[in-house]
Amino acid sequence: MALPEPKLGLVISYSYLWRHESEAGLVEGTKDRPCAIILVVRKAEGDGATIVTAAPITHSPPHDPAAAMEIPQRVKQHLGLDGQRSWIVLDDFNEFVWPGFDIRPVPARPGRYEYGFLPPALFEAITRRIVELRRQGKGFSSARD
């Protein structure tokens, strides 16, 4: 199966590089995880590359509850994720040229690289929270390419 087109709200399997890993000098993520595409920019000039910004999904409760949003269980079921509590982190992102080197097949779904889409209302709430955090000067992006 071919790679999906990068679209807002699409949850992909990705080798995510956390801020603390980047700051420690690592250049590769240590674990593949679901990540939501929160921004897609298609360059009009140059090579016409598509730049994607992805936010990680984790089981770890957030250190700063304002910088994460819990994913409802019914959304996790819709995406085919496990039943454990999970959060999407809203102040730590990876930016990369699509498709990049770090997109991974979804476990137990041969040939698939995506879990599906976040519901529009949840994606809207996520983007509102990210904008609020940016206004407060919070947020970090690791360029992966």
* Overall helicity: 10-25%
SS-derived structural category: alpha+beta
Uncertain stretches:
none
Cα distance spanning the termini: 24 Å
The tally of structural domains comes to 1
Question: Quick one: how many beta strands?
Answer: 8
Query: Strand-and-helix sequence, N→C?
Result: EHEEEHEEEHE
List keywords for this structure.
eight-stranded mixed sheet, 33% strand, 145 residues, 3 helices
Task: Please describe what this structure looks like.
This protein has helices at residues 19-23, 73-79, 120-135; strands at residues 10-16, 31-42, 50-58, 68-70, 87-89, 92-97, 114-117, 140-143. It is of the alpha+beta class and 145 residues long. The chain has one domain. Strands 1, 2, 3, 4, 5, 6, 7 and 8 form an eight-stranded mixed sheet that branches. The two termini are 24 Å apart.
Would you kindly provide a brief summary of this structure?
Helix content is 19%, strand content 33%.
Fold blueprint:
Elements: E1 10-16, H1 19-23, E2 31-42, E3 50-58, E4 68-70, H2 73-79, E5 87-89, E6 92-97, E7 114-117, H3 120-135, E8 140-143
Parallel strand pairs: 6-8
Antiparallel strand pairs: 1-2, 1-7, 2-3, 3-5, 3-6, 4-5
